[in-house]
Amino acid sequence: MDSDRKRVEDALLGSVTTPDAYLTEIASHLISAGGKRLRPVFAIVASQVGNDAPATHEAIMGGVSCELVHLGSLYHDDVMDESSTRRGVDTVNAKWGNLQAILAGDFLLAKASEIAASLGTEVAGLLARTIGQLCEGQIEELRHTYNVARPVDSYLTSIYGKTASLYSTAARIGGLVAGHDRAIVDALTAYGAAYGMVFQIVDDVLDLTATDEQLGKPAGHDMEEGVYTLPVLHTLAAGGAAASELGSILGRPLNEVEREKVLHIVRSNGGVATAIDRARAYVDEAERACDALPQSATTDAMRKATAALLATVA
Q: Which residues form a coiled coil (predicted)?
Protein backbone atom coordinates (compact mmCIF):
# COMPACT_ATOMS: atom_id res chain seq x y z
CA MET A 1 0.00 0.00 0.00
CA ASP A 2 2.91 2.40 0.58
CA SER A 3 3.80 2.39 -3.13
CA ASP A 4 0.13 2.91 -4.01
CA ARG A 5 -0.05 5.86 -1.62
CA LYS A 6 2.95 7.39 -3.42
CA ARG A 7 1.14 6.90 -6.73
CA VAL A 8 -1.90 8.63 -5.25
CA GLU A 9 0.18 11.60 -4.04
CA ASP A 10 1.84 11.99 -7.43
CA ALA A 11 -1.50 11.76 -9.24
CA LEU A 12 -3.12 14.27 -6.87
CA LEU A 13 -0.42 16.85 -7.44
CA GLY A 14 -0.39 16.17 -11.16
CA SER A 15 -4.14 16.63 -11.43
CA VAL A 16 -4.02 20.20 -10.07
CA THR A 17 -0.87 21.37 -11.85
CA THR A 18 -1.74 24.10 -14.33
CA PRO A 19 0.19 26.64 -16.45
CA ASP A 20 -0.86 29.22 -13.84
CA ALA A 21 1.62 28.88 -10.96
CA TYR A 22 -0.62 30.93 -8.65
CA LEU A 23 -3.63 28.64 -9.15
CA THR A 24 -1.41 25.56 -8.84
CA GLU A 25 -0.07 26.78 -5.50
CA ILE A 26 -3.53 27.43 -4.09
CA ALA A 27 -5.06 24.23 -5.46
CA SER A 28 -2.21 22.05 -4.16
CA HIS A 29 -2.00 23.74 -0.74
CA LEU A 30 -3.90 21.11 1.27
CA ILE A 31 -2.52 18.26 -0.83
CA SER A 32 0.99 19.29 0.19
CA ALA A 33 -0.14 19.46 3.82
CA GLY A 34 -0.65 15.70 3.75
CA GLY A 35 -3.48 13.49 4.90
CA LYS A 36 -4.48 9.86 5.43
CA ARG A 37 -5.98 9.57 1.91
CA LEU A 38 -8.61 7.18 3.20
CA ARG A 39 -10.91 7.66 0.22
CA PRO A 40 -8.26 6.67 -2.32
CA VAL A 41 -7.39 3.74 -0.07
CA PHE A 42 -11.03 2.66 -0.20
CA ALA A 43 -11.07 2.77 -4.00
CA ILE A 44 -7.84 0.79 -4.20
CA VAL A 45 -8.86 -1.80 -1.62
CA ALA A 46 -12.27 -2.26 -3.22
CA SER A 47 -10.62 -2.97 -6.56
CA GLN A 48 -8.44 -5.64 -4.91
CA VAL A 49 -11.21 -7.65 -3.25
CA GLY A 50 -10.98 -11.26 -4.32
CA ASN A 51 -7.73 -10.84 -6.19
CA ASP A 52 -5.28 -8.95 -3.90
CA ALA A 53 -3.67 -7.70 -7.14
CA PRO A 54 -1.65 -4.49 -7.46
CA ALA A 55 -3.76 -1.37 -7.89
CA THR A 56 -4.54 -0.43 -11.47
CA HIS A 57 -4.19 3.07 -12.88
CA GLU A 58 -7.99 3.29 -13.00
CA ALA A 59 -8.31 2.45 -9.31
CA ILE A 60 -5.70 5.07 -8.42
CA MET A 61 -7.46 7.74 -10.47
CA GLY A 62 -10.86 6.77 -9.12
CA GLY A 63 -9.51 7.31 -5.62
CA VAL A 64 -7.92 10.60 -6.66
CA SER A 65 -11.26 11.87 -7.99
CA CYS A 66 -12.87 11.17 -4.59
CA GLU A 67 -10.01 12.80 -2.70
CA LEU A 68 -10.29 15.93 -4.84
CA VAL A 69 -13.99 16.15 -3.99
CA HIS A 70 -13.09 15.82 -0.31
CA LEU A 71 -10.42 18.51 -0.56
CA GLY A 72 -12.70 20.84 -2.49
CA SER A 73 -15.33 20.47 0.22
CA LEU A 74 -12.70 21.32 2.87
CA TYR A 75 -11.82 24.54 1.04
CA HIS A 76 -15.49 25.52 1.12
CA ASP A 77 -16.00 24.35 4.73
CA ASP A 78 -13.12 26.50 5.92
CA VAL A 79 -14.70 29.55 4.33
CA MET A 80 -18.05 28.82 5.97
CA ASP A 81 -16.45 28.13 9.35
CA GLU A 82 -13.96 31.02 9.05
CA SER A 83 -11.24 28.52 9.99
CA SER A 84 -7.65 29.72 10.11
CA THR A 85 -5.76 26.42 10.25
CA ARG A 86 -6.14 22.91 8.88
CA ARG A 87 -3.70 20.01 9.01
CA GLY A 88 -1.20 22.22 10.78
CA VAL A 89 -1.05 24.90 8.09
CA ASP A 90 -2.94 28.08 7.28
CA THR A 91 -6.22 27.48 5.50
CA VAL A 92 -6.51 28.74 1.94
CA ASN A 93 -9.02 31.38 3.01
CA ALA A 94 -6.70 32.59 5.78
CA LYS A 95 -3.69 32.76 3.46
CA TRP A 96 -5.22 33.99 0.21
CA GLY A 97 -8.78 35.08 1.01
CA ASN A 98 -12.31 33.73 0.75
CA LEU A 99 -12.75 34.40 -2.96
CA GLN A 100 -9.63 32.45 -3.86
CA ALA A 101 -10.63 29.61 -1.54
CA ILE A 102 -14.09 29.30 -3.07
CA LEU A 103 -12.78 29.35 -6.63
CA ALA A 104 -9.96 26.91 -5.83
CA GLY A 105 -12.48 24.58 -4.19
CA ASP A 106 -14.60 24.78 -7.35
CA PHE A 107 -11.50 24.02 -9.39
CA LEU A 108 -10.81 20.88 -7.37
CA LEU A 109 -14.39 19.70 -7.88
CA ALA A 110 -14.06 20.34 -11.60
CA LYS A 111 -10.83 18.33 -11.81
CA ALA A 112 -12.49 15.50 -9.89
CA SER A 113 -15.34 15.48 -12.39
CA GLU A 114 -12.91 15.48 -15.30
CA ILE A 115 -11.10 12.44 -13.93
CA ALA A 116 -14.39 10.64 -13.21
CA ALA A 117 -15.53 11.26 -16.79
CA SER A 118 -12.36 9.58 -18.06
CA LEU A 119 -13.39 6.44 -16.14
CA GLY A 120 -16.78 6.15 -17.83
CA THR A 121 -20.26 7.58 -17.72
CA GLU A 122 -21.36 5.50 -14.72
CA VAL A 123 -18.46 6.73 -12.60
CA ALA A 124 -19.02 10.31 -13.78
CA GLY A 125 -22.71 10.18 -12.87
CA LEU A 126 -21.94 8.56 -9.53
CA LEU A 127 -19.44 11.24 -8.55
CA ALA A 128 -21.80 14.02 -9.62
CA ARG A 129 -24.57 12.56 -7.45
CA THR A 130 -22.16 12.31 -4.54
CA ILE A 131 -21.19 15.98 -4.80
CA GLY A 132 -24.90 16.73 -4.60
CA GLN A 133 -25.22 14.51 -1.53
CA LEU A 134 -22.37 16.39 0.17
CA CYS A 135 -24.25 19.64 -0.38
CA GLU A 136 -27.51 18.12 0.86
CA GLY A 137 -25.81 16.85 4.02
CA GLN A 138 -24.30 20.26 4.72
CA ILE A 139 -27.60 22.05 4.15
CA GLU A 140 -29.33 19.61 6.53
CA GLU A 141 -26.77 20.48 9.18
CA LEU A 142 -27.04 24.22 8.61
CA ARG A 143 -30.83 24.26 8.82
CA HIS A 144 -30.63 22.81 12.34
CA THR A 145 -27.84 25.05 13.66
CA TYR A 146 -28.51 25.86 17.34
CA ASN A 147 -31.66 23.71 17.25
CA VAL A 148 -31.87 21.81 20.55
CA ALA A 149 -34.87 19.92 19.15
CA ARG A 150 -32.89 18.58 16.18
CA PRO A 151 -34.12 15.04 15.40
CA VAL A 152 -31.59 12.21 15.44
CA ASP A 153 -32.71 11.32 11.92
CA SER A 154 -31.59 14.77 10.78
CA TYR A 155 -28.13 14.11 12.18
CA LEU A 156 -27.91 10.69 10.51
CA THR A 157 -29.09 12.10 7.19
CA SER A 158 -26.55 14.88 7.42
CA ILE A 159 -23.53 12.70 8.22
CA TYR A 160 -24.47 10.24 5.48
CA GLY A 161 -24.41 13.07 2.96
CA LYS A 162 -21.39 14.91 4.36
CA THR A 163 -19.17 11.91 5.08
CA ALA A 164 -20.47 8.41 4.40
CA SER A 165 -21.59 9.05 0.82
CA LEU A 166 -18.04 9.76 -0.33
CA TYR A 167 -16.63 6.66 1.35
CA SER A 168 -19.42 4.65 -0.24
CA THR A 169 -18.69 6.17 -3.64
CA ALA A 170 -14.94 5.57 -3.36
CA ALA A 171 -15.57 1.88 -2.65
CA ARG A 172 -18.11 1.64 -5.44
CA ILE A 173 -15.78 3.26 -7.96
CA GLY A 174 -13.05 0.81 -6.99
CA GLY A 175 -15.42 -2.07 -7.61
CA LEU A 176 -16.64 -0.66 -10.91
CA VAL A 177 -13.23 0.00 -12.44
CA ALA A 178 -12.09 -3.47 -11.35
CA GLY A 179 -14.98 -5.04 -13.22
CA HIS A 180 -16.41 -6.82 -10.17
CA ASP A 181 -19.82 -8.46 -10.37
CA ARG A 182 -22.71 -6.17 -9.46
CA ALA A 183 -23.42 -8.04 -6.24
CA ILE A 184 -19.84 -7.43 -5.12
CA VAL A 185 -20.00 -3.77 -6.19
CA ASP A 186 -23.19 -3.33 -4.15
CA ALA A 187 -21.61 -5.00 -1.10
CA LEU A 188 -18.58 -2.73 -1.40
CA THR A 189 -20.90 0.27 -1.61
CA ALA A 190 -22.71 -0.82 1.55
CA TYR A 191 -19.39 -1.35 3.33
CA GLY A 192 -18.17 2.13 2.44
CA ALA A 193 -21.40 3.71 3.66
CA ALA A 194 -21.27 1.83 6.98
CA TYR A 195 -17.61 2.70 7.52
CA GLY A 196 -18.32 6.34 6.78
CA MET A 197 -21.11 6.45 9.36
CA VAL A 198 -18.81 4.93 11.99
CA PHE A 199 -16.05 7.35 11.02
CA GLN A 200 -18.23 10.42 11.55
CA ILE A 201 -19.85 9.24 14.78
CA VAL A 202 -16.42 8.43 16.20
CA ASP A 203 -15.14 11.84 15.13
CA ASP A 204 -18.12 13.53 16.79
CA VAL A 205 -17.62 11.53 20.00
CA LEU A 206 -13.95 12.53 20.09
CA ASP A 207 -14.90 16.19 19.67
CA LEU A 208 -16.67 15.87 23.02
CA THR A 209 -14.48 13.41 24.94
CA ALA A 210 -10.89 14.10 23.85
CA THR A 211 -8.70 16.82 25.34
CA ASP A 212 -7.92 20.11 23.65
CA GLU A 213 -4.35 18.91 23.19
CA GLN A 214 -5.42 15.66 21.53
CA LEU A 215 -7.77 17.46 19.19
CA GLY A 216 -5.54 20.40 18.38
CA LYS A 217 -8.55 22.64 18.99
CA PRO A 218 -10.96 23.26 21.89
CA ALA A 219 -13.10 20.23 22.75
CA GLY A 220 -16.78 20.81 22.11
CA HIS A 221 -16.12 22.98 19.07
CA ASP A 222 -19.20 21.62 17.29
CA MET A 223 -21.45 22.66 20.18
CA GLU A 224 -19.89 26.10 20.16
CA GLU A 225 -20.81 26.37 16.48
CA GLY A 226 -24.36 25.23 17.16
CA VAL A 227 -23.87 21.80 15.59
CA TYR A 228 -25.45 19.26 17.94
CA THR A 229 -24.14 15.80 17.20
CA LEU A 230 -25.35 12.36 18.27
CA PRO A 231 -24.03 12.30 21.88
CA VAL A 232 -25.56 15.73 22.52
CA LEU A 233 -28.89 14.80 20.93
CA HIS A 234 -29.11 11.58 22.96
CA THR A 235 -28.29 13.48 26.16
CA LEU A 236 -31.05 15.96 25.40
CA ALA A 237 -33.51 13.19 24.53
CA ALA A 238 -32.83 11.24 27.73
CA GLY A 239 -34.76 13.75 29.81
CA GLY A 240 -34.17 14.53 33.45
CA ALA A 241 -32.23 17.28 35.18
CA ALA A 242 -29.11 16.90 33.00
CA ALA A 243 -31.12 17.23 29.79
CA SER A 244 -32.98 20.25 31.13
CA GLU A 245 -29.78 21.99 32.17
CA LEU A 246 -28.10 21.20 28.87
CA GLY A 247 -31.08 22.46 26.89
CA SER A 248 -31.15 25.69 28.89
CA ILE A 249 -27.55 26.48 27.95
CA LEU A 250 -27.54 25.39 24.31
CA GLY A 251 -29.47 27.08 21.53
CA ARG A 252 -27.05 30.02 21.24
CA PRO A 253 -23.29 30.69 21.10
CA LEU A 254 -21.34 29.61 24.19
CA ASN A 255 -18.76 31.38 26.28
CA GLU A 256 -15.80 29.50 27.77
CA VAL A 257 -17.54 28.75 31.09
CA GLU A 258 -20.65 27.47 29.32
CA ARG A 259 -18.58 25.31 26.98
CA GLU A 260 -16.91 23.59 29.91
CA LYS A 261 -20.27 23.14 31.62
CA VAL A 262 -21.99 21.48 28.65
CA LEU A 263 -18.96 19.27 28.05
CA HIS A 264 -19.21 18.06 31.63
CA ILE A 265 -22.92 17.33 31.24
CA VAL A 266 -22.50 15.37 28.01
CA ARG A 267 -19.48 13.45 29.28
CA SER A 268 -21.19 12.56 32.57
CA ASN A 269 -24.43 11.13 31.17
CA GLY A 270 -25.35 8.35 28.76
CA GLY A 271 -25.32 10.22 25.47
CA VAL A 272 -21.78 9.19 24.54
CA ALA A 273 -22.44 5.52 25.28
CA THR A 274 -25.67 5.58 23.26
CA ALA A 275 -23.84 7.15 20.32
CA ILE A 276 -21.17 4.44 20.52
CA ASP A 277 -23.91 1.80 20.50
CA ARG A 278 -25.30 3.35 17.33
CA ALA A 279 -21.83 3.25 15.77
CA ARG A 280 -21.52 -0.40 16.78
CA ALA A 281 -24.65 -1.16 14.76
CA TYR A 282 -22.93 0.30 11.69
CA VAL A 283 -19.88 -1.85 12.42
CA ASP A 284 -22.22 -4.84 12.25
CA GLU A 285 -23.52 -3.57 8.89
CA ALA A 286 -19.96 -3.32 7.59
CA GLU A 287 -19.22 -6.87 8.70
CA ARG A 288 -22.38 -8.16 6.98
CA ALA A 289 -21.22 -6.44 3.80
CA CYS A 290 -17.86 -8.21 4.13
CA ASP A 291 -19.71 -11.53 4.43
CA ALA A 292 -21.02 -10.92 0.90
CA LEU A 293 -17.52 -10.36 -0.52
CA PRO A 294 -15.05 -12.96 -1.79
CA GLN A 295 -12.87 -13.96 1.13
CA SER A 296 -9.31 -12.74 0.77
CA ALA A 297 -6.61 -10.90 2.69
CA THR A 298 -8.13 -7.65 1.50
CA THR A 299 -11.58 -8.60 2.78
CA ASP A 300 -10.10 -9.61 6.14
CA ALA A 301 -8.41 -6.22 6.43
CA MET A 302 -11.67 -4.46 5.61
CA ARG A 303 -13.52 -6.46 8.24
CA LYS A 304 -11.00 -5.45 10.91
CA ALA A 305 -10.81 -1.80 9.91
CA THR A 306 -14.27 -0.71 11.02
CA ALA A 307 -14.06 -2.45 14.39
CA ALA A 308 -10.61 -0.91 14.93
CA LEU A 309 -12.05 2.52 14.18
CA LEU A 310 -14.76 2.11 16.78
CA ALA A 311 -12.21 0.80 19.29
CA THR A 312 -10.64 4.27 19.41
CA VAL A 313 -13.61 5.45 21.49
CA ALA A 314 -15.28 2.26 22.77
A: none
Find the helix or strand (DSSP H, E) in which 9 lies: helix 2-15
Q: What's the rounded Cα separation, in Å, for the pair 177 and 30?
A: 27
Q: Note the pTM of the prediction, 2 decimals.
A: 0.94
Residue-wise pLDDT tens for the chain (314 aa)?
Answer: 778 899 999 999 999 999 999 999 999 999 999 889 999 999 999 999 988 788 999 999 999 999 999 999 999 999 998 888 888 899 999 999 999 999 999 999 999 999 999 999 999 999 999 999 999 999 999 999 999 999 999 999 999 999 999 999 999 999 999 999 999 999 999 999 999 999 999 999 999 998 877 887 788 989 989 999 999 999 999 999 999 999 999 999 999 999 999 999 999 999 999 999 999 999 999 999 999 999 889 999 999 999 999 999 98
Q: What is the DSSP letter of 55?
A: P
3-state per-residue secondary structure call for 213-232: HHHCCCCCHHHHCCCCCHHH
Residue 28: Cβ within 10 Å count:
20
Cβ(2)–Cβ(55) below 8 Å: no
- Count how many domains the chain has: 1
The answer to whether 256 touches 224, Cβ cutoff 8 Å, is no
Query: In which domain, by residue range, is 232 found?
Result: 2-310
Identify the CATH number of the domain in which residue 11 sits. 1.10.600.10
